[in-house]
Structures are given as C-alpha cells and as structure tokens.
C-alpha cells in the first residue's frame, strides 16, 4: 500500500515517516532475505504453538486429556488425535501434510480476538512463565539478524500470532508437505529392531517427523503472517492520522470547508489541512479547479452567442474580477486555518522528504541482513560508496535500528574532525 506522507508529524516512534519506513522495510524482507523468515519459523513457531497449547489446552483437548499438561505435551496429544483419525481410514495416500492439516484444524476452537487479547504483544508475553523460551528464541533471532530492536521483536511475535490464527494455515501445511507418505514412515519404523512395541515405534516415528517438519527450512509458512503484520503497521499509521487530525482541528478531524459563492457560482471544497499539504499546493489545486469552472461557464455563454446572432455581445469578459475575488477569499481561509491550528501544531515537526526511500531501504536490507556484504558490493560501481553509506545511515536512523556490530567505526558522514584547542595551537 503506497501512501503519501503528511507534511508534519509527531516525534519519536509515533512519527508517521518512521512507521511508514518500518512497514516498507519489513515488506521487502521476504523477497530480499527470505532466510530471515525461515529462521524465525525454525526458532519460534513451534515454541509459540506450545505456549498457545498450554494456555488453551482445556479448549483444545476434551475431558481427562487436559490435566495440567505442558504446551509440548498438549500439542503431541493433538498430533496423536489427528494420527488416530487418519489411521482409522488407512494410511494410503496420506502425507505428513495431511496429519499437520488435521492437527492445526483443531485450533479453530480458539477465538482469534481472544488470542490477540491474551497475547497482545511481545512485551506482554515476557510476563508469562510458559513463554520464556519463546521470548528467548525471538530475542536471539533478532540479534542474529541484526534486527535488535523492540519493534522488530514485536513484528516477529505478531507474525507468529497471525500465522496461527490464519484459517489458511492448515491448507498451507497440506500443500507444502505432500511428502513423505505416512505409510512409509510408519512401516519403516515398525520393521526396525527397536525394543519398543510395534505401535509405539510407528507412532513415535510419525510424531518425530511432524515436529521436525515444523522446524524445517521453509519461509512460505510464515510469509503471509509476516506481510499481514507489516500491513497492520500501515493501518495503525492511517488510524493515527485520524487521531492527529482530531487533535489539531477538533470535532471530527476535518478542517472548515472552503466555500466561495457568487451569483451563479457555488464552489465548495474541503478546507486547508496544514498537516496534509503545503499552502502553495492547496492554493494551486483549488485555483485550477476554479479556473476550469470559470472557463466552462464562459464557453457555454460564448457558444450560445454564436448560435443566436440576435443576442447582444458583451465586449467585457464574463468573469472579470471573479478570480481576484476568489484569491482574496482563499487567502483569508488559509490564514484563518493557520491561526486556529498554530498552537496545536507547535509540537509537530516537518517531515523530511526522501525521494529514494525504496532504493535506500533495499540497500539497508542488503547491508544489515547480509553481514558479509560490503558497501562496494552494494554500490556495484553504479553509485559512489559514500552515497550508499549515507543512505543506509539515514534509513537506520529513521527506523531506529542499530547498525550491525561489525560495521567499521568512523566519524559521521558530513561532519568534520574536531581537535582540542591545545592541539590546534600546536599545529600553528
């Protein structure tokens, strides 16, 4: 979703330029660095499933089965239930994907709104005892990929939650894991020389394969949840605009409309919003609209004169003086809006224009998430390395993300060396 940024914004993490950049940064990672999402799936998805199973085991497991089990025990019980259901019809043409599909279909009993309310954020789950392993996994993942910031960990957690609550998850598992067949896993296990009973050997082999599959190298399973979480950042940005407009303009957040009425002309347009556009842009837009109306009005009169020679011809322009009158009223409207909002916009800051944000975010991902990649490789001889370095520093500052620790230290681009007065005197 491409949006045009406002001209002014709040400071800090509420700044819409920061929110927008974070959303675009995260949306680009699946394409540019899919291994990052694969690693999150391997490190955190199963741990998140265990946490959910422990919290909602009474809903997921019926009767005597739900007796203070750990999350892993509860999930294995769900796998066993699904296997028994699958085996009752024979294992012919049944894959590990079928087993996982049936297992995760049982999670539909958990209401998505309740899930989001009880597991609202990464910050909140750090207070839950059974989620400590999950929190460590998310934290380790973020530091490994140089995404060492709370907002990145929040995004990772939202990705896991969105994936589990997505109705399409079970079908994704069915499509992604059409092999190996359950029959081959089961028969190979029971034909071994293990000391366990035949049934146990087969079941343990199937369960091991299922758990291993959920930790395999595949980014597709979390891709939908990842993008969904990134889009939620954009939606939050748009909602914050509503709140900001209400704060600045009062009422329902809309500035007073501009209304110019003169004889047969009734020109009514949305009022000037200093948050959304500059005075020059607003004035140009409205004046062009008004002049088109004037031209059309005069064109109609002139056509009627050419068709009817008996009508008197007026030598003076039909709309003489109207444009000047319009401009004067428009200036008054803009001035009144500024006067009304100047106190409420005092704490806002002007948004810096970044015409190459998409390119710069791509460079940032190439640099931050590929530790072995140098500035020279990213520049690729097309641009100067200093341009790439400056763009990456700007993006990392905008995102509020620490530069990867192996980056060479040096003075900030655009600054000069500063020496103590004593050293300066020695040089003279």
Provide mean pLDDT, rounded.
85
Instruction: Count every beta strand, where a strand is a DSSP E run of 2 or more residues.
Output: 4
How many distinct folded domains? 3
Strand residues, percent: under 5%
Estimate the helix proportion, in percent: 55-70%
Specify Rg, calculated over alpha carbons. 32 Å
Q: Tell me, what's the shape? A: elongated
Enumerate how many helices there are, as a single number.
19
Low-confidence stretches: none
Q: Strand order, biggest sheet?
A: 1-4
Q: How would you summarize this macromolecular structure in one to three sentences?
A:
By secondary structure, this protein is mainly alpha-helical.
Overview of this protein structure:
This protein has 428 residues and is mainly alpha-helical. It folds into three domains: 8-239, no CATH class; 258-350, no CATH class; 354-428, no CATH class. Helices cover 61% and strands 3% of the residues. The protein has 19 helices and four strands. The strands form two sheets. Strands 1-4 form a two-stranded antiparallel ribbon. Strands 2-3 form a two-stranded antiparallel sheet. Strand 2 and strand 3 form a beta hairpin. Helix 1 crosses helix 2 (34-55) and helix 1 packs across helix 16 (357-368). The radius of gyration is 32 Å and the shape is elongated. The chain starts with 7 loop residues before the first strand and ends with a helix.
């Amino acid at each position: 979703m491409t949006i045009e940024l406002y001209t002014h914004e709040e400071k800090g993490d509420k700044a819409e330029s920061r929110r927008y950049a974070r959303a675009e940064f995260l949306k680009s990672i699946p394409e540019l660095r899919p291994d990052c999402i694969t690693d999150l799936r391997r490190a955190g998805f199963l741990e998140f499933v265990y946490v959910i199973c422990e919290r909602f085991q009474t809903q997921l497991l019926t009767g005597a089965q739900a007796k203070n089990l750990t999350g892993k025990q509860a999930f294995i019980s769900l796998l066993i239930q699904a296997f028994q259901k699958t085996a009752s019809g024979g294992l012919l043409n049944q894959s590990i994907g079928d087993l996982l599909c049936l297992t995760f279909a049982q999670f539909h009993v958990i209401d998505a709104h309740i899930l989001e309310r009880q597991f609202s954020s990464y910050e909140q789950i750090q207070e839950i005892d059974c989620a400590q392993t999950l929190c460590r996994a998310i934290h380790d993942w973020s530091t490994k990929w140089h995404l060492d910031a709370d907002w990145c960990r929040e995004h990772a957690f939202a990705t896991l939650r969105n994936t589990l609550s997505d109705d399409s998850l079970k079908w994704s598992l069915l499509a992604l894991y059409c092999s190996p067949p359950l029959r081959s896993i089961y028969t190979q296990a029971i034909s071994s020389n293990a000391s366990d009973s035949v049934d146990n050997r087969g079941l343990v082999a199937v369960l091991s394969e299922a758990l291993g599959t959920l930790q395999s190298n595949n980014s597709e399973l979390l891709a939908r949840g990842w993008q969904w979480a990134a889009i939620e950042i954009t939606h939050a940005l748009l909602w914050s605009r509503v709140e900001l407009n209400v704060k600045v303009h009062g009422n329902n957040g809309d500035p007073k409309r501009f209304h110019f009425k003169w004889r047969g002309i009734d020109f009514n347009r949305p009022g000037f919003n200093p948050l959304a556009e500059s005075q020059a842009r607003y004035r140009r837009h409205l004046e062009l609209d008004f002049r088109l109306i004037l031209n059309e009005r005069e064109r109609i009169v002139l056509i009627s004169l050419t068709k009817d020679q008996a009508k008197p011809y007026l030598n003076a322009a039909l709309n003489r003086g109207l444009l000047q009158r319009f401009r004067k009223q428009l200036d008054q409207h803009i001035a009144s809006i500024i006067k009304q909002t100047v106190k409420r916009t005092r704490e806002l800051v002007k948004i810096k224009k970044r015409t190459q944000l998409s390119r710069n975010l791509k460079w940032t991902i190439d640099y931050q998430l590929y530790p072995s990649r140098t500035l020279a490789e990213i520049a690729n001889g097309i641009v100067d390395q200093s341009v790439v370095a400056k763009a990456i520093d700007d993006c990392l500052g905008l995102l509020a993300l620490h530069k990867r620790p192996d980056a060479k230290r040096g003075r900030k681009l655009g600054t000069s060396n500063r020496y103590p007065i004593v050293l300066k005197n020695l040089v003279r």
